[in-house]
Amino acid sequence: MGKVLLKNIENPDSADINEYKKAGGYSNLPKALEKQPKEIIEEVKKAGLRGRGGAGFPVAMKWTFASADPKFPKYLLCNADEGEPGTFKDRPILEKNPHLLIEGMAISGYALGAEYGYIYLRGEYPEAKNILNRAIKQANDNGFLGDNILGKGIKFHLAVHQGAGAYICGEETALIESLEGDKGQPRIKPPFPVNVGVFAKPTVVNNVETLSNLPYIIEIGGDAYSKIGTPDCPGPKLYCVSGHVEKPGVYELPMGTILRDIIYTHCGGIKGGRKLKAVIPGGATTPILPPDKIDCPMDFVNMPKHGSMLGSGAVIVMDESVCLVKVCYRILKFLEHESCGKCTPCREGTGWLRSILGRVEGGEGMEGDIDLMLSVSGNMMGKTFCPLGDGAASVVQNFIKHFRPEFEEHIKNAKCRFK
Amino acid sequence: MIKVTINGKEIELEKPVTVLEAARSAGIKIPTLCYHEQLEKYGGCRLCLVEVEKIPRLQTACTLMVTDGMVVRTETPQIADVRRGILEFLLINHPLDCPYCDKAGECELQDLVEKYGPAKGRYKEKKRKAPESLEDPVFVRNMERCVMCTRCVRMCDGVQGASAIAIINRGGHSHMEPFSGGKYDCEYCGNCVSVCPVGAIMSRLHRHSYRPWQVKEKTETICPYCGVGCTVIAQVRDDSIKRVIPKIGSSVNNGMLCSRGRFGYEFVGSSERLTSPMIKKNGVLEQATWEEAISLTAKRLGEIKNKYGGPSIAGIASPRCTNEDNYVFQKFMRVALGTNNIDSTARTGYAGTQKFIENIFGQGATANIISGLSNSDSVLVIGGDPTAINPILGLQIRACSRKGGNILAIGHIKGLEKFNPVTVSPRFYTETLLLEGIVSALKNKKGLPGSIPALEAKIKDISTSAKEVENGCGIAEKDFIRFTDTLSESLTPSIVLGKDIAQSSGGSYKLMLISAINYLMNARIYLLSERANEQGVLDMGCAPDLLPGYRPLSFAEFRKRYENAWKSPISEKPGLSIFEMVDSAKSNALKALYIMGENPVFNLPNSKAVKAALKNVEFIVVQDIFLTETGKLADVVFPALSWAEKEGTFTNMERRIQRLRKAVNREGMEDWRIISEVAKNMGVKLDYSGAEEIFQEISRISPLHRDLTYEEIGKGGAIYPYKGEPLRGVMEDIQMHKGSSVNPDGKLYLRLERPLFHSGTLSTKAPALVKIYPEAVARVSPAVGEALSLKSGDMARVSTRTGSLELPVNIDNKLDNLSVMLTNNFEDKGAFSLMEYTIDPVTKAPVIDANEVKLEKVLA
What is the pLDDT of residues A258-300, one digit of tens each? Predict the structure, then answer.
């Protein structure tokens, strides 16, 4: 299988519409417009496409809910608020292959009956903003977007909205609040965005990578697509690998590629031949794995069976030079900073955990601190408004679960030996 | 029917509600903090987490809707642990300063911790610090105590509609702050204080002066300020009102209050209150005993009556006094003094407007339920800002907008500007033309229904096109058409009418046009009312042409009825209106004036002339709680008991009769009792054991109030038309007066501002309201200010034909270029001292919109 999502990105002008067209781009949109919207949703269902944002929700199901809602207009939002630490998989699409996303959104918009789409772009991607805006203009000028797409009387407009730097706005309802001009905080669910989303209208929120799969599904058909990767979770997947590997970067591989293979085969193994200490396989808030647990297929179905999650596919590799207490502290510091403050356990718990971790890492830990952290994170887990708080609790619980001796050592010796 | 099982108990529900509501309906308590019944759901505090079968995660009971067959558990050991965990989170950064916090004793956090047990004290880190903010004169903010429930913000945004505060910053740094920074720039309704579950936002008025459990007296009574008649609870310690709070579920205001109602109570305990009767000796008021003052009053009134006859005496009743006070007063005037010379400041607009409208549509046409306003699909607002004059009624208009209704405003209405009003602002003095245009448009769209021929005869004569409106009023044709289309398309419209109409040139003609709109739209009409018992003073017969029960004096049948009841003849000659009294005083025909709870020397336009006229009167009696400008002219002054110190009833603008209950003990007499004592000294029996006995007499003889009892009123059963008989159509000719046309070009006019924070001079005796709005200011538009190089805060001399005042200027960019706005609240700085008036011959209301004014910069 050739590259689908990262096709042609070695070409320095890949973001230009002509280069994209030369490489076969915008050939699937006309095909899609020949179909009935329902047929497209049916293809996506056959394809078994799951959302690539982190939760892996079946895309066709979301779409069916939204298109069944009688309210109009409907909206399609692209979640490009790629904020999970370690994640940079959407960036090559946004910067190098924006037309793939646009084509995917045009197809999706048509399938959903949405006439307006927004790309909610993270504030820290200013480059991508310019690239996307230029690409949208080109697509408009070439009749792939606008009031009368390819002369078929189909309408779909697209606009970029830049976030202001809040991690929580990657959560779809907070994203919607932010898009509407309010403070980014998650909304009560139900009602779900598919029924009451942006401007109180049916709204589908999909990740950049998810929407970018659409042209390919149209090209080869849902059945063929479903043969790629894992049966329950098919398709190509972008894995972004960072940390102590020889060749960090974004890799497009079939869904379900074994984590060990990603690290040792595709990324050339641990930097300098050092020993692997731990891997966070799917972005900072997914459970950390010790070296003996990395023979797991990286997909939404299998990762939970191996004690972690696929998340955004952001693989963070750490060698033996790393202090995991410090890593844990750093992640909690991030989550405390990004907690929106709406619900009690997350607002108060993230700060408390960060304080304790800071103390332990700084050699001022006290006996009982580990149990205290487990208790505090237990009081958060499952009680927060949105997954951010759960994520914070889970980070602490999993770091301690796999690396408790390292925490104990910090407390016992009242110092960090990695310093 | 939806069946749910909560803690093993089966509950059947008619319609889907939240799990929390379902549980509460079955008497199952679930702890909450961010939940509040008046507010939108939030789900942030996480205290109400419960277990629901088939849902793996715990669910917040306050947000989850019940579904048929749902099984919920709210009290398990696991849930108790969760709640303890949440409370621990809430306490780790809390200052734990209960011994010092005013909220202790009624703090929801404290109560919850008491129930679930204290945390283990395992938080070793530094607490977040935030200094208590005392930057505002009324509110104190303590963000260390805040639990981030956001009830204040949801109240301010979603219910009050002031949108003055917000949660700023993120995560643990989140806190509530007014947009204006430390000091609030808001409506000071204090409804954020009501809903705060902890001691994070509190009133400074009673800071550290009591503990909640020390306020034993909790008296449910009615607010003394405007005609809405909000239910308030006065909380008292040692005969001093510590706090006034609203009551959730009360029919008029349902848990809401405005700035005056909540923070305006301090006048009751003012050290300036009159404490003893006073008699003028050698031009100086000196303290006297009750006996001296009463017998002197009786003697002098008797002498004057004998010498000049009853009609040489007049009485001014009070829309701030109870029905009982006013009833006894008019009975005294009619029976003891033999005159119908009794009137009140309701004459300044409310009385004439109501009479005009009732003449066309029948009695009770303006008695509409305030809470129903929000269910209208459009509200036409004209003649005043309801959110300032009657703030709680204003909230209903805002709620109407929130529910999708249209607000149609004639002229800029400041308090509704955030609620997407469809506004048409006619040029000065062209309101009549605009109204004619609206009537014409509605006539063409809706046709004439045929039910009131007299009104239709007037409507038929009106024909004003959109083009004429554009040329005359300066309103673009398309804006006018949008306005009339929106109005005509509405199915359940309401009209909210302020006093500015009656007080403007051609007021009665405008009232006919507004009546025509009301008629063509089949709307409901609400009259804004500035005084708590403005309706009651009329219904009690404190008007020169009305007997109690709002019965016309001119009908022999009604006179007969009261003559029989009072065992005394009643003059058939209508008495003097309040303005005729002034004229009569000016011409020396009026010999004595008895004034109860009113301050005509300040509260009537051209107040300087009123003062001069009253100086001619031989004998003036004033009953009041403060020594007013009028009191200073009096020969005898009686100290009266205030609103908080007596029993009685008020009738609000809906004509709902409500009970006032005594909250504070104070030595002295109610207004009616003073009158009764004077009558006794004149040999006239006006004896009552108490307010209730007076009301019994009213309900015995007034056909309108028949069979009403205090007990029923207390239960809220006194909504018009009660059980008595409303007066059926006694339609007279529709008379109206077009007024003179004015060419305002290049001139400035003095106009009366009716502020949110003040009411008469009473509110200026309430320190909190004075802190919010401390002094009289002249408001002008930027263009007017610029022409004289005036900035906000600069001093200007405001002069009219009757005098001049030096006032600080306030630049208001929403104001037109013809107006200088001034309030009539501050001593020696009242707009009425600069205003002359003419009387509308139909409504008898003063026309005050033609006072040219000169503005000059005063150099420092």
Answer: 999 999 999 999 999 999 999 999 999 999 999 999 999 999 9
> Residues for chain B: how many in total?
860
Contacts of B41 in chain A (CB under 8 A): 188
- Could you tell me if B847 and B505 are in contact, meaning their C-beta atoms sit under 8 angstroms apart? yes
Identify the residue whose tokens are 């549509």: B361
- A295: exposed, middle or buried (C-beta count within 10 Å: 0-12, 13-18, 19+)? exposed
CATH class of the domain whose range is B123-269 = alpha beta
Query: Which residue, of A319, A350, A376, is where some domain finishes?
Result: A319
Any idea where the domains of chain B sit in the sequence? 2-75, 123-269, 278-344+542-714, 350-527, 749-857
**What's the pLDDT at B730?**
60
The partner residue sitting opposite B172, judged by closest CB among A188, A347, A382, is A347
Identify all chain B residues contacting A343, using CB atoms and an 8 Å cutoff: 43-46
Provide the domain limits for residue A137: 17-227
Residue A285 domain-assigned? yes
Same domain, A86 and A135: yes
CATH code of the domain in which A281 resides: 3.10.20.600
Closest CA to A256 of A196, A306, A296, A197: A296
- pLDDT (average), residues B541-546: 96
| Tens digits of residue pLDDT in A385-417 | 999 999 999 999 999 999 999 999 999 999 999
pLDDT for B272 equals 97
Residue B727 has a pLDDT of 67
Q: What distance in Å separates residue B521's CA from the closest CA in chain A?
A: 32
Q: Mark whether A257 and A160 lie in a shared domain.
A: no
Give the count of domains, chain A.
3
B636 pLDDT above the threshold of 70: yes
Enumerate residues 6+ apart whose C-beta is below 8 A from B349.
Answer: B499, B502, B503, B843, B845, B846
How far CA A347 is from CA of B35, B92, B170, in Å, comes to 18, 11, 9
Contacts with A187 from chain B: Cβ below 8 Å: none
Nearest Cα neighbor of A328 from A275, A365, A379, A367 is: A365
Domain B350-527: give its CATH architecture. 3-Layer(aba) Sandwich (3.40)
Nearest residue of chain B to residue A372 (CA atoms): B122
- Interchain pair A352, B92: CB under 8 A: yes
B600 vs B345: CA distance, rounded Å: 8
pLDDT value for B728 = 64
Mean pLDDT calculated for residue range A225-232: 95
Higher pLDDT, A68 or B746: A68
B120: contact with A, CB 8 A cutoff: no
pLDDT in tens, B466-500: 999 999 999 999 999 999 999 999 999 999 999 99
Residue B462 CB-density burial (10 A; 0-12 exposed, 13-18 middle, 19+ buried): middle
pLDDT in tens, B246-303: 999 999 999 999 999 999 999 999 999 999 999 999 999 999 999 999 999 999 999 9
Residues of A in contact with B49 (CB under 8 A): 383
Contacts for A396 with CB less than 8 Å, ≥ 6 apart: A328, A332, A353, A357, A373, A374, A376, A377
Q: In sequence order, which ranges of B447-567 are alpha helices (DSSP H)?
A: 453-460, 466-473, 477-488, 507-521, 534-539, 556-566
Q: Give the tokens for residue B427.
A: 């040029």
Q: Is residue A204 part of a domain?
A: yes
Strands (E), B34-174: 49-52, 59-60, 70-73, 139-141, 165-168
Interface test with B, best of A182, A338, A347, A388 (most B CBs within 10 A): A347
Residue range B278-344+542-714 forms a domain whose CATH class is alpha beta
Q: State whether A330 and A400 are in the same domain.
A: yes
Contact yes or no for B86 and A379 at CB 8 A? yes
Q: How high is the pLDDT of residue B3?
A: 95
